[in-house]
Amino acid sequence: MTASARVTAPSSLRPPESLSDGEARLLLAGRLGVAPAAIDGWTVATRLSDTSLALGNRELKAYARRIATAAVLRRAWRLVGPIRRATRPVQAVMDEPFRGELEVEATLENVAGKRFPERDDWIVERREDREQQLVLMMDVSLSMAGENLAIAAVAAAVLALKMRSEDLSVVVFENVARAVSRLEERDDPEQIVARLLAEPARGYTNIEAGLRLGSREIGRGRNPRKAGLLITDGVATAGGDPLPAADAFPRLHVLLTEDYKMDPALCERLASRGRGEVFRVRHHAELPGKMLDIANRVLR
């Protein structure tokens, strides 16, 4: 091979570790059939679940997931804004100066009739994180391919940004169910989103499998305040009756994605069996915003 031929060899023939971001962008544009200037993270995010998309090159896959994950997180950040954890008021003996506000009524009750107040008489009120553990169960069957799965990843990212990482588990299901993140384990939002985007949309919808694995995840949690949240249209095309699986949750909420083939009656029964609520969205595009509303309600 001549020196000239080596210089003009296509990037796809080079070893993966030699690809620059610019070369990866050109290759990715070719795989997606769009102009390089049209490549952006969200476009890539909507295509990663397509099982017909063959990226082949390991570094190209890593580049695609990196820019797609960043795009999903940007959308979630814009929704969530400044992070405000759910808190609860707690009254306690003042153990550190300036920590909390003096609870006047409780303090006066303690010092009443005493000539010299004691240390434990001074009561303050402060706000502490109100911890809640949640298992999110998401459909990744073939019907979720494309933008629907990318939008669902934004919705999951909203929760990941609002919660402590060890308090969130994400379960995906199609014919079978898999845990993308687990309770009591630390996975940052980037890891959770990247794993979701790596899921190929395929198979049928086995709601029972999602709930069974979700209930096992609930069992891992050590916080008594814990719940499940199932995203579904209520149409199970694989597996058995999902209703008995709802009994294992201390609380199970259902986020119903409305469409022409939905089964709202099953969603209502699942939530009833799980002592939870049904939330509705008319279109997948509404999922992230509704997820923020749910987080602000369920996590308080």
Please outline the helices and strands.
Blueprint: H1 3-7, H2 21-32, H3 41-45, H4 58-80, E1 87-93, E2 101-102, H5 104-111, E3 123-129, E4 133-139, H6 147-162, E5 168-173, E6 177-181, H7 189-197, H8 207-220, E7 226-232, H9 243-246, E8 252-257, H10 264-273, E9 278-281, H11 287-298
Parallel strand pairs: 4-5, 4-7, 7-8, 8-9
Antiparallel strand pairs: 1-3, 2-3, 5-6
Helix pairs in contact: 2-4, 4-6, 4-7, 6-7, 6-11
Descriptive notes:
By secondary structure, the chain is of the alpha/beta class. It contains eleven helices and nine strands. The chain has three domains: 11-80, no CATH class; 87-129, no CATH class; 133-298, Rossmann fold (3-Layer(aba) Sandwich), CATH 3.40.50. The strands form two sheets. It has a six-stranded mixed sheet with strand order 6-5-4-7-8-9, with helices on both faces. Strands 1-3-2 form a three-stranded antiparallel sheet. The radius of gyration is 25 Å and the shape is globular.
